[in-house]
Amino acid sequence: MPSATPPPKNRRQFVRTKVTLVERVASVVCLVLLAAIGGYVLWKGKHFDPALYSVRTESLQTTTNEVKGEDGTVRGADARPESRVATAPKPEAVVAASAAEAAQTPDASAPAEGSAPSGPPIKGDPLEVNLPGTTPMSDTEFYGPNNLFEKIDGRAPAYLTFNFQQLRCRSFSVTGAAGSYVDVYEYRFDTPINAFGMFAIERDTNGKKIDFAPDGYSGELGYYFRQGVVYVQIIASDQNAKTMALAQALARDRAKNLKADDSGLDGRRQLPSTGLDPATVQFVQENAQGQDFLKNVFQAVYDYKGKKLPFFIMVTKPEDAAAAFKSFQEFCGKFGGTAKSLPDVNGAKIFSAENFGTYKVVFQRNGQIGGVFDADDIDKGRQFVEEYLRGELQ
Question: Which of 145, 127, 146 shows the shortest CA–CA distance to 136?
Answer without folding.
Answer: 127
